[in-house]
Structures are given as C-alpha cells and as structure tokens.
Give the backbone structure.
Amino acid sequence: MSTVSREQVESILSGIIDPNSNEDLISSKSVKDITINGSAVTVAVQLGYPAAGFKQELTDIDYDRTRRTRYF
C-alpha cells in the first residue's frame, strides 16, 4: 500500500472540469477539504450553485479518475 500525498490528490482534482463553470475543481476553489487516512482519501467539494443533478456525475468522475491512477 503506497502513501497518498495531498499533491497527488490535488493533481487529480485539477484535471476534473466542472461543466457549469468550465474551471477545474482546484482553480475554482471548490475543494474545501482533503483528508488522507492511509490509502483512503476524502474530498469535500462545495460548488457555487445547486448541484443535486450533478452530484452523481461528479462522484463518478472522481471515482473513475482515482481508480485509473497508479498511486491510489
């Protein structure tokens, strides 16, 4: 099990573009917290608009992206 760094998580999140703002989650300051506990990572995201319909899509993007990344 490899250690996950905050920089690795931020790198992944900077590649996820919010289709409503056309900005990545890091640049738009949508990421409010990143918690790393061993290999488990929790990311708190707050968007500046109601996003109930976008929530599942965002969750799927994050999961798919981290699953394909070697250091997760």
Remarks:
- The chain has one domain: 6-67.
